Structure formats: C-alpha cells, structure tokens
Amino acid sequence: MILVFDINETLLDTAVLSPLFEKLFGKAAVRGEWFLTLEETWMTATLAGRYLPFGLLAKSALRQTGLRHGIHIDDDHQRELTDMLAALPAHPDAAPALAELRARGFQLTALTNGTLETVQHQLAHAGLDTSFDVILSVDSVETYKPSQPAYQYVADHWQVSTRELVMIAAHGWDLIGAASAGCRTGFIARPGKVIDPQLFEPDWQADSLIALSRQLMEEISPNSGEAICKG
User: Fold this and answer.
1) Rounded CA gap, 30 and 106, in Å?
2) Which of 172, 166, 213 is nearest to 195 (CA)?
3) What are the mean pLDDT values of the chain's consecutive 10-residue runs (231 residues total)?
4) Which of 145, 192, 143, 199 is nearest to 33 (CA)?
5) Could you say which of 57, 85, 113 is where a domain stops?
C-alpha cells in the first residue's frame, strides 16, 4: 500500500499567512476567502483545459480578493504571499506521524498542486523532505487535483493501479477526486475543515495525522495489495 499525502493545509500550516491578510485587509479571516478563491481558480482552469502554475494562480486569487474588497494589491504584496507560501511550517503532528509510518514500512508519496521546485523548497524548509520516498507535482501532467489524471500520475510513477494508493488530505474535494480515480482515502480534520458524510465518506478519518496514521497501521499491511490514497 502506497500512502499519498497532500501538502498545503494537510501537512503544512497556512495559518501563518494570517498576518499578511490582517495587514492588507484588516481581517485575518480573509485568508480563508483567498484560499477558496484560489481553489475556484485552479478548478476552473482545469475544467477549461487551461493549466497555469500554482504560484501564478495564488497571486491571481490575491488580486481577485483585493478587487472584491476594494484593496489595491501590488507586486510586493504578491511577492510577499509567494515567499510566505514557500516557508510554511509543518503541523506539529506531521513529522512524527510520517516517521512512524516509514518505520512500519509504508511507502510515502507527496503529491502537490504546487510546482515541484516550490514543494521541494517547502518540505526542506519544514524539515519533511526526507520523509518521502518520492515528491510529485501535478505540474508534470499539467492538470490539478481533483482531476483523475493527477492521481493516475502517482499510480503510473509506482507502476501500480490506483487501487494500491491511499490519498490523505484535509480537503474533501481532494478525497472525492481520489476516490473517483479508484484510490482509498483518509481525511484529516484540520481546524475549519469538515466533510459532509451525506456527500462522501472517507475510508479513514481523524482529528490528527498521528491518530489517522495509527488507524492505517492497525488496518493495513504495508506490503499488501490493497489500495490507499492520501492527498
């Protein structure tokens, strides 16, 4: 079983961006509005078949948020955002959970909607770069999660079927996409993240990565042929 992990919000804490949004908009809560705008932007680009790198979309989402609030967003503000994104800290439970899974023999994959260069920098800065067997970016296939080709890319890398992947993420949309591609799924309920059980039920879910990892270790053999995906 190969475990696949989403990065931003799932392993890395975007709450550290709040001071930037407090400075620009007078309310730290606008960070959530920006992220929803970013999600809408990359999903629209994917549906329209127009791929643009994550950093460009992150800046666009900030500009859109500024227009919505009547705030001018200049180049320095956009640069500050991308610099901060590249230096996000890990959630406290990330390193110990990943270490425990590796010690038990699981193969760990990072899968990000960001570019490969950015995610390599992010994980190195957060001290997680050596936690993974491989680090992958959708930039290589030019389609964002939750499109099915993004998850198939991981399966193709490992030369397995998507049934042998477990996607782990703090985003319901990511897990729905992974399940549609044939993966199994694990949900981490990071602060503010919920999943509607009437719409979708992941195979595993917990409030922390450590708790989720222990569920997986209890129920899955690392060398079994079962499929598990984490995004």
Assistant:
1) 38
2) 172
3) 96 96 96 95 92 95 98 97 96 97 96 95 96 96 95 98 97 97 97 93 97 94 56 42
4) 192
5) 85
